[in-house]
Specification:
The structure is a homodimer of 138-residue chains. The first copy, chain A, is of the alpha+beta class. Helices cover 33% and strands 28% of the residues of chain A. Chain A contains five helices and six strands. Chain A has a three-stranded antiparallel sheet with strand order 1-3-2. Chain A starts with a helix and ends with a helix. At the A-B interface, strand 6 of A face strand 5 and strand 6 of B. Strand 6 of chain A pairs antiparallel with strand 6 of chain B, so a sheet runs across the interface. Chain A binds a DNA duplex (25 and 25 nucleotides) through helix 4.
DNA sequence: GTTCTTGCAAAATATTTGCAAGACG
DNA sequence: CGTCTTGCAAATATTTTGCAAGAAC
């Protein structure tokens, strides 16, 4: 996939087979993926390799890392292919019943005024509650 | 502290010595505490006891649980002593340099419109960046 | 006495690192 | 060659549960 190679190259990340697989997997997921999930998807790639690729991606703004409601870290591709700004982010939802995370891609994170002297790098807006599917089951 | 006993009683939580100690400790902290921190503060109370007290408190809306930027769960007392609503919440800040969390008590979380059918229980608004103290050191 | 709570120990879950071999430029 | 990347194994860190003794009602 030439497309993914360009994304990596544009961010100054060397292209390797593993890295392309990780980008591919993240792209295929609709909701942010955890390390464990990626481990299954990307078998037989090693967990630590995936982990290090993800760290590298986070450092180079290829992916965001967010914490879902269950104390686990999840990863998703930065949407903007050029630069990865704060404006890039959207709201996430965590269902306390089925324990799944999803994205509200259409809902941008409202900005707030931070006190003097604080530098903002990223923002996570996480709603916890019950998703429609689980709600209808009750 | 009669005061804390009333808080617990009002939420239908049975009052025990341990629970009062946990409430006290959370009240004394300015920023949200992690389980490990509480373990030190509350020594010799057992870690698992603290954990179970915290779970019970979260279930009964005595405390909020939030995830700081480092994948750790932190706890803070619900501010409203009557009921623990979504309006109760404020913005949190995580410094990526000194790895400390703090509260922007004066900055309420802006609300967003969620898609139809979703039930909102709580919201976490976490800003990651660099705090003034760490920023001045560079 | 029946239910809830606690402490100890240990399991379960996730993340992170050390090291040597291999790939890349 | 020298640096970056990978896989295997193992160490850390953190959260969670089983069980029996004790406390509360």
């Amino acid at each position: 996939m030439k497309h993914f190679e360009q994304i990596l190259a544009a961010k100054g990340v060397r292209v390797t087979a593993n890295r392309l697989l990780v980008v591919q997997a993240l792209h295929d997921q609709k909701s942010p993926s955890s390390l464990s999930e990626l481990e299954q998807t990307l078998f037989p790639m090693d967990k630590s390799s995936i982990f290090r690729v993800l760290c590298h991606f986070v450092d180079n703004h290829v992916v965001h890392s967010i914490e879902d409601g269950a104390g686990m870290i999840r990863y998703e591709l930065c949407s903007g292919h050029d630069d990865c700004s704060v404006d890039d982010m959207h709201v996430h939802f965590y269902c306390e019943v089925c324990k799944h995370s999803e994205c509200f891609h259409d809902v941008p994170i409202p900005k707030v005024d931070v006190p003097e002297g604080y530098e903002v790098d990223s923002i996570t807006y996480m709603i916890k509650g019950i998703c429609p599917k689980c709600r209808n089951k009750r």
